[in-house]
Amino acid sequence: MVFPIRTLCLYVFSFLLTGTLLAQRGDGSLFSSYGIGLINNDNVGYSTRLGGTGVAVQSPYFLNHINPASSVGILGAYNFMIDADVKYQMMNISTSEESIDLNRTNLSHVAFWLKVSKKSAFTFGLMPISSVDNSFLETTYFVGSADPYSKYTKNYGDISKVFLNYAYALHPRLSLGVRPYYLFGHVNNTNLYEVQSDVNGSVDSFQLNLKNNYSGVGVDLGMQYIAYKKKDKKIILGLTYNAPANISEQLSEEVQLLDSDSLLFESSGEMEQMDFFQSAKAGISYQNKNWIIAADYVYKYFPDSWEDYTAAQQVSLGVEYVPDFYGYSFPKQLNYSAGLFYDTGNYLFQNTPVSRYGFTAGIGFPIQNLTRLTLSYQYEKQGSTSLLAKEITHGITVNFNLADIWFQKKGYK
User: Which residue, 316, 327, 337, 310, is CA-closest to 56?
Assistant: First the structure.
């Protein structure tokens, strides 16, 4: 039975249009309570198994989302590809008082790549910008009242971008890329207040719901230059710039009693412009027929209006080995990947940056014809019990590369 890849492509595309795939969830991290949550840095798909590396990577087989200029370098025996991730994460969160385990499964991104000529390629897709998913319990008091309330807070939501990437080979050694996108999403903040004592005159238990809606436009830019080339060996330099998006925010809120349908208060604010972060990346890679060895440096800058954020730097290393992608021997068709990273941390807790580090490893299998499945493992540690929480995450990502030949007729003699 022939795998119905074109039918699957159309189904996935229709899900995108109807919003079925847009319901992404976050990692469950307490650090996602900061601002817009955990920032993704375009680390999806191929770069996930390379430790987030990809600025100077120009894979001939896989779609690299880190650099918008890299997609024109795909030289496989196909001109169309679907790239998608399904991610499972198990997280342990330890504070000075308790330790809990969380589990998450979600579709992290989906993209459609089409090479329209030897020099140009388009990619259309959806990927996350940030995610929020956390909850905590505390005791609080209201001004003018001695009655204690148990406050249960639940924050959840995400910000995503729908993008159209265009990459063009300006010269055999130089490729440029531009990725305009539409940004959208919301973050919900639900606060449940329950009175801890039955005191005459006290306010009944109630719920405060806050919702931040986001929308805007932005652009990512990329460049890759082959600085050295001899036969199948080459050294590539790469640069990217994620410009600050032009984004608007709208806050709506409502207060209602828990034991009735009574709505005590409701309001919806006007759309207001907000500042957004930006990042610049530089990378270098060595590539030959079988190997890719790459290193990246990332600088993330946040506006002054983002309290508890600080400028951060990240370094990452990645390596991939592909013995014989189109070979007939199954072991030689496998691809092997590994990577590691260190981030100085963009979140401040008590004026101290919260750093994170981790490593990755992956292995890919041919499934049918040009279709490939890659399994990768990610380990990440962020924070400590003295800096809000120590979070250790174990992740398993299944990356699907479903490739095909479109808009070409087969010829027979």
Answer: 316
**Which tens digit of pLDDT belongs to each residue from 266-310?**
888 888 999 999 999 999 999 999 999 999 999 999 999 988 899
**Cα–Cα distance for residue pair 106/263, rounded to 1 Å:** 34
Q: How far apart are CA 167 and CA 388, in angstroms?
A: 42
Residue 258 — pLDDT band, cuts 50, 70, 90? confident
Sole residue written with tokens 């996602």: 32
Whether pLDDT at 201 is above 60: no
Note the pTM of the prediction, 2 decimals.
Answer: 0.87
- Whole-angstrom Cα distance, residue 251 to residue 99? 33
- The tens digit of pLDDT for each residue in 298-350 reads 999 999 998 889 999 999 999 999 999 888 888 889 999 999 999 999 999 88
- State percent of the chain over pLDDT 90: 54
Length of the chain: 413
- C-beta of residue 192 within 8 angstroms of C-beta of residue 207: yes
Characterise 35 by phi-psi region: left (phi > 0), alpha (psi -120 to 50), beta (else). left
What's the CA gap between 39 and 172, in Å, rounded?
Answer: 34
Beta partners for 297?
Answer: 282, 315
325: Cβ–Cβ under 8 A, 6 or more apart, which residues? 60, 61, 76, 333, 335
Contact 7, 18 (CB under 8 A): no
One-character DSSP codes across 211-252: EEEEEEEEEEEEEEEEEEEETTEEEEEEEEEEPPPEEEEEEE
C-alpha angle 38/248/166, rounded to 5°?
A: 75
CB 183 within 8 A of CB 216: yes
Mean pLDDT of 169-193: 94
State the Cα–Cα distance between residues 60 and 6, nearest whole angstrom. 22
Return the biggest CA–CA distance within the chain.
93
pLDDT of 148 higher than 90: no
In the block, residue with structure tokens 């969160």:
93
Burial class from Cβ neighbours inside 10 Å (0-12, 13-18, 19+) for residue 195 reads middle
Residues 34 and 277: beta-carbon distance below 8 Å:
no
Torsion sign over Cα 223, 227, 230, 235:
negative
How many angstroms separate the CA atoms of 56 and 64, rounded?
10
CB 224 within 8 A of CB 58: yes
